[in-house]
Structures are given as C-alpha cells and as structure tokens.
Amino acid sequence: MPKYLHCLPASAALLLMTSLHSAVAATMYGTVTAGLSYVDHIGAKNGSVVRASNSEWGTSLIGIQMAEALTSDVQLLIRLESGFNTATGTVGSDGMLFSRYSTLGVESKTWGRLEAGRSMAYSNDVWYIDPMGLNWSGSATLTKGHSWNAWSHTVGYRSPQSGGMAIGLQSSVGGRACRSTAAALSFQRGGLDVRAIYDETRDSQGQLSELFDASREWIVGARYDQSANSWFVAYNIVRAPDASASGDTSMRHVWAGVNHKIGSRDLLRLGIYGARSNVTDSRALLVSGGWEHTFAPALTLWGTAAVVRNNREAAFPVAAYWQDLPAPGATQHTVNGGLIYTF
C-alpha cells in the first residue's frame, strides 16, 4: 500500500475534529463518475478497446472546503481536493494525496481572493466556452489537455466582478524550470459570457520547446444563452517557439457548438473542433455530441459519441486518451456513457 494512504484515517479524523471543535465551517463534497467507453482504430494495428470509463464526462473527485471569518469582509479559505479513478479505486496522481487543490487563501467581497498552494490552472475557465463542457471529446482533446492542468507552487488572484468584468492571475513560483503562468479575463452581461485566456508551461530548461507539453496558448471565445439554447464559439492558438526546426511550432484551433435544453431534465450538446499545425500541416476535424438526462438533482446519465478525421500527416485522437492515438491519416470513433453522482 502506498505510504500516503496510511495517512487517510488520520487526516479524516483531524478534519472531523476541526469541524467539531472550532469555528471553522467545513464542507465535504464530491463527484463520482463511472461508465463504459469504446475507442476504435488505435495505432498501426487498427485495434480497438472497451474499458471502464473514468472522468470522461465529469471528473471523479472528493474534497473538503473550510472557511473562517476573520473580519466582517474577509474570510480564511482552505481547499483540499483530489481526483480519483472509479475504475481502479486509486486516489490522486504521482503520489499526491490532494492532486487538484491544496490551497490556503483569503477572500474579500471588496478585494477578491488571494490563494497559494497546488491549484487547478485558471485556464480551466475554458469550461465556460466549451459546448462539450471540457469532457474527453471536447476543447482539450486536440491540444492534449493543455488548458486543464493542475499546477504546484502557485500563487493566484481572482478579482470580484465589477461592471460584468473580472480577472484572474496565477503563476507557479517554484523556479525557472517548468514555470507555469495563467491569466483569465471575463465579461458577463445578460446571456453573454466572453472569455480571454492565456497560459504557458515551460520545460525543465525554462524553454517553450514542445507544442503540447511546453508551450503557451491564447484562447478567446464566447457563450450566449438564449431561451433553451446556448451558443459557443472560440479561437485558440498554441505556440512553442523553442521547438526544433523540424517540428511544429504553432497550431491553430477553433470550435463552435450549441447546447439545447429539452424540458427541465434533458440537455443535448454538439461541438465541432478543427486544428491545423504549421510545419507538418497536421489537420484534424473533431465532431462530438452528447446527451445528459437528470434523474434527480444529484444523479445524471450521460452519453457521448464522437469522430475525428485526420489528414495524412495527422494522428490526433478522438478522446483525451493520448495513449490510444490512431495511425496517421486515420479516422477514429468513440462512444461512451455512464452515470454521474454529486454530493
């Protein structure tokens, strides 16, 4: 058994004692996602796989939030959150118990929120302008999840909303190597939500040397809610100026889509995503559709079907399983579905 798992009972007891014997307001929350998925045309052998899916529609996670008032306007915030794999029962990643959040911060209704620790990158705000809601066949698929990472050693600031505008600034402060930075700007008025997002992650030498793992990106997009429909459009560019001359140094990525509500319990999703790199001229078109049915406020059934068409130079996957890459030029399909329970 991994060493950190032995700490779980003690951690749980400590948190329980904290909630019972202090003025701190503690809230436990979580999401449990489980289902099945199918992916075809994998690799040169054109294989396929059926697997127990995990976090394909919504991340399986468990967390605790604690808040304590310091003044009438300022409160202390603590957030501890970890993703887990419902298919295997494993918690966290790379030996981290709190793989998504382990932050301590202060928040003011007047001045905003300042926090430090391990945190999801502020570039995850792309969720608001992605018609597929950042699922595994959505806006992060063709960019290898560039915008949905979690970072260590971060300091972040979120402003309060003023006139519909709000900003977020975040940076990891662990040194020059693997340095990460993000900024998010939003404007909301009526049914309109406009977002501008920047993020970058550097390699161990402080370089932007690989298009998906050590690069910078800009995203500009909008969502407009109108009656039963929500419309989405976005433009994304990824750049790695320090990459080798023979490799891609930039990629343009665009998408559009719509969500349609049917009554109070059903939601249909459609997203179309296109990507094209500069040097190898790798091109892909991803079309993804989804359906959600709400049985109860906490229980949702989901289903997704998607297809990606690659040109002869490209090998983009249909889902964010980048270990299931197709052969160059292949068309790949996926179908998945399951249940999401939130508490």
Backbone shape:
globular
Compute the number of strand runs: 17
Secondary-structure content class: mainly beta
CATH level-4 homologous superfamily:
Porin
* The CATH C-level class name: Mainly Beta
> Number of helix segments?
1
Order of helices and strands: HEEEEEEEEEEEEEEEEE
CATH architecture: Beta Barrel
In CATH, the topology is named: Porin
- Segments where pLDDT lies below 50 for 5+ residues? 1-22
Biggest beta sheet attributes? 16 strands, antiparallel, barrel
Helix content, binned percent: under 10%
Describe, in short, the structure shown.
The protein is mainly β and 343 residues long. The protein has one helix and 17 strands.
